[in-house]
Structure prediction request, 520 residues.
Amino acid sequence: MAEQPARPQLVLSTLILVAAVANLNLAVANVALPDIAKAFDATQTQVNLVAVGYSLGLAATVLYLGALGDRYGRKGMLIIGLTLAVPASAVAAYAPNVEVLIAARILGGVSAGMAFPTTLALITALWAAGPKRTRTIALWSALGGGVAALGPLISGLLLESFWWGSVFLATVPLAVLALVLSSLLIPAHVNESAEPVDHPGGVLSVLFVGGLVLGINFAAVPNAGTLVAALSLLGLGAGLGFVWRQRRAANPLYDLQVAARPTFWVAAVAGTLIFGSLMGAMFIGQQYLQNVLSYSTVEAGAAILPAVVLMVLAAPRSARLVEAHGSRVTLLLGYVPIIGGFLVMLLLWDADAAYWAVGIGYGLVGAGVGLAGTPASRALTGSVPRQRAGMASATADLQRDLGGAVMMSILGVLLTAGYAKAATTDVGVTPDVTEATQATFTKSFAGAESVAAQFPEQSDAIVAAAQEAFLAGDQWAYLAGLVTVLVGATLVWFAYPRQQRERELLAKYQPGQPTDSRSD
Prediction:
């Protein structure tokens, strides 16, 4: 097999564009969340689900759809996903209520579950293992992640002139262009599997992720204990059933023997926490900038730019570090700035934070993701045979999407709970407090703003109280993010193989493929 495809630059550019469509859709909603909350009088939980819905749809389906692509054609799956992305975006843009919007976001995630895993699977199938593939993955990871981080700025610019739904139409031209280029440039079939697809395993994987993520999101909703318990039991039962099925299926959807390889499972968990931290920081941070610091949508979107710049600058250096020092060292180097970023958010992001503190916090997280993204994805693709490329790419996507969905859900629940607890105390700033007023004030920051509009003489005090309540909630969220990242760094330190052992293992997993820095 050739070391790279014909016209490699064009093929890679097309795959990055496809990934950009999925990544951009992950992020475009964040800046619009305050406007969406006002438009639909949404609760904080509904706001969380609008943000998480896309990641949920992607994470729940990516394993199953990745396996279908491995078996029946990755190009076909990519084309279907890009085609479905257009109506999903249109429905989200013109949703008549928040429930339809959440459903459209989930559908958009499913469309990305068809297209996004195909991109890394094709890189794995078309580029031989070695430095060329590592550099290709670095570009794919950095530019795809950079586009996602640009989502808030694009959304902010649109919201200056158009309604909240315009942010969901931003990706439609990119999706159409990616569809045309993919049809012309992507090979129809490359190293695909002839094994039958494990459909029961696929259904169980969807139920597992869906139950887990939704159970977390409803945890802070009052009087929703029965629903949370049911969703949690569904997720737990489906997860156990999935493991049972994969151990016994003749052709498992997810090869647990491959997944048990240390270069695979440690990289998968580490990458999940890394990318989840980026998505969680963007999710909470965008609301903080607008609700507490009163940034405009453009200012809030532009505030993320340090993360974009440092992510893109760090990724090429990451590729060289991986070849020179191995994935373990590079992953650990990536965790250091992410830890610093969450410390800045926890200690310096208060009611009077200057932009330098915001920029440093975002920049550190972006630099860490840029450094750590390449070794996490490279370790996964190097740990599986080429006919299982979809499993590696689906896991790499899960790093972003399940990590994003879970981290956004956990941080969102903590924000909701912390806000509600503080707001219950602060609601006394309003005169003639009624149960309806209190419920409106405590359900979300947008609800507090509507209460302030009812009492113009006390509006400043009401908004200030809501800002304090929001700060109480986001402190819980940033602390949880910091603890999670520290756990991930500890895991890498103790469990990921050192450089020489990593090279030996990757050579064993993909015999005959170059894995050291001397190969080109």
Notes: Residues 512-520 have pLDDT under 50 and may be disordered.
